[in-house]
Amino acid sequence: MNEVIKNLTERRSIRKFRPEMPPKALLEQIIEAGLYAPNGMGKQSAMVIAVTDKTLRDELSALNSKILGRDADPFYGGPAVLIVLADKSVPTYLFDGALMMGNMLNAAHALGLGGIWIHRAKQEFEQEYGKKLLEKLGIEGEWEGIGHCVVGYIDGEAPAPAPRREGRVFWAE
């Protein structure tokens, strides 16, 4: 089987990470894969905030947990959080951000790391905390949070794939 196809079909969402931070060089490769994701009209509307600072990561986890309405780490202990935001002025921003997330999750798997897409970035960056974080980082404009690509070393084994649901492919030949 082609190595790219193999990586795409074997990647799973990881819900238990070891605490050690992956090397910055691996995170940079994951981010680069995200930056090369397909995007509408070549606008490249999506961007990444790479959070490796534990204090900031924990603050984001607490905010995300509050939005979720549960008292648990929604990032499953993952040490690196790659937040994808997209420029709301671009008509394809939501799709651009989603493709960036997909590329980064697949790149993490290809590099031997685990990853998971965690939602509620939209709500985080609509709140004052998120707006102040963007301001602190010098990010201007109207950005919408697309998702958190949580990345780290898998603690244990990756889950087995769920059976694929039938009736999802229709040929018009």
Mind explaining what this structure looks like?
By secondary structure, this protein is of the alpha+beta class. It has a single domain, classed as NADH Oxidase (3-Layer(aba) Sandwich), CATH 3.40.109.10. Helix content is 39%, strand content 17%. The chain contains 6 helices and 4 strands. It starts with a helix and ends in a 21-residue tail after the last strand. The mean pLDDT is 97.
In summary, what is this structure?
Helix content is 39%, strand content 17%. The chain has 173 residues and is of the alpha+beta class.
Radius of gyration: 16 Å
Instruction: Summarize model confidence as the mean pLDDT.
Output: 97
- What's the total number of strands? 4
- Our count of domains comes out at 1
The CATH superfamily name is NADH Oxidase
Shape: globular
Instruction: Specify the structural class.
Output: alpha+beta
Q: Biggest sheet, strands in spatial order?
A: 1-2-4-3
Distance between the termini: 26 Å
Query: What CATH architecture label applies?
Result: 3-Layer(aba) Sandwich
The CATH topology name reads NADH Oxidase
Order of helices and strands: HHEHEHEHHE
Quickly name the level 1 CATH class: Alpha Beta
Helical stretch count? 6
- Proportion of residues in extended strands: 15-25%
Q: What is the percent of helical residues?
A: 25-40%
Sheet with most strands:
4 strands, antiparallel
Q: Catalogue the unreliable spans.
A: none
